[in-house]
């Protein structure tokens, strides 16, 4: 099957050496180094490896063989379990490990009512607000230059009414959302993040993809809140929605004219969660194995899922929520690797798409008498190499165009 036209382009390059002389009739190798589209997964599984606490080299190799965008955890209850005691250095080390390997990074989330910092729950609201905004400034500022996008506010649709607290104590963030209102709270959060890193991509993210989320987005945009992209979660523990349902949902949110990030995607390779379960957290069986039948289904569905979303021009990234069954969310068999590290059919199927059909592997080409050659491929970053050296370039636009300046090979 062909790649959608809105994902590919052709760039005519003119290669020159350091003196400006054209590399005439030269044999070169051209290879893609990263997609413009974000093919992502959680980076949680590699935090210990990046910090030298364990050797997870096989997992790291499998991760990097498919993905180019990592989501790192900033859940405040884990990130700052006690006031001022943060995991900043540990997550920064992880971020650098990924960045050194050409991986883009996103932080998730800055404001959320779940995985709460329990020490905030008894504080007065003015102090909760101060600490919430200060936390945004601190994290975005501390990771500026490393993390380029953030889920600023997570699951705001239910935030003011969330009551599922294991300790029975209302969480501080929900109390703040009730008192301040969702729109003013989100506005303040986005403004703090923007001030801390004006170049960052700032997302609103939610699992509630109903009209309630659409109304909230309408209210925010009408109030002048600047949102860079919309996050849409699709944990399909109860079964793949199918292309028609998925694309109808994407179309509803595409009307806002903002890039869409499918931020949390899960497809199971085992028994599906019963359809009558409303809150996915309410179904966590003692054992939830991957099965041969489920793995075959997952492989088929992941190809269909990615093809349909890559085919939609509003979608800018897809993040698969957990590469491995080891430590998977809710214990569900949603990983692309089994708990023992072996690859499921879905892993191989996705790799064939992302680093096969949608990827320009190392290809030998020859320049003409003026040093020109035309490179066609999936929008993204590339490198050209020859005996004289190498140079990086990007195919940024659909259709065909000529690079405005010669590309110097050193």
From TrEMBL:
The UniProt catalytic activity note for this protein reads: Endohydrolysis of (1->4)-beta-D-xylosidic linkages in xylans
Swiss-Prot/TrEMBL keywords: Carbohydrate metabolism, Glycosidase, Hydrolase, Polysaccharide degradation, Signal, Xylan degradation
Q: Where is the GH10 domain?
A: 53-353
Regarding protein family, the annotation reads:
Belongs to the glycosyl hydrolase 10 (cellulase F) family.
Gene3D superfamilies given in the database record? Glycosidases
In Swiss-Prot or TrEMBL terms, this protein is called Beta-xylanase
Keyword set includes Signal: yes
EC main group: hydrolase
GO MF annotation, one: endo-1,4-beta-xylanase activity
Any Pfam family hit: Glyco_hydro_10
Q: Which GO terms describe its biological process?
A: xylan catabolic process
Q: What is its EC number?
A: 3.2.1.8
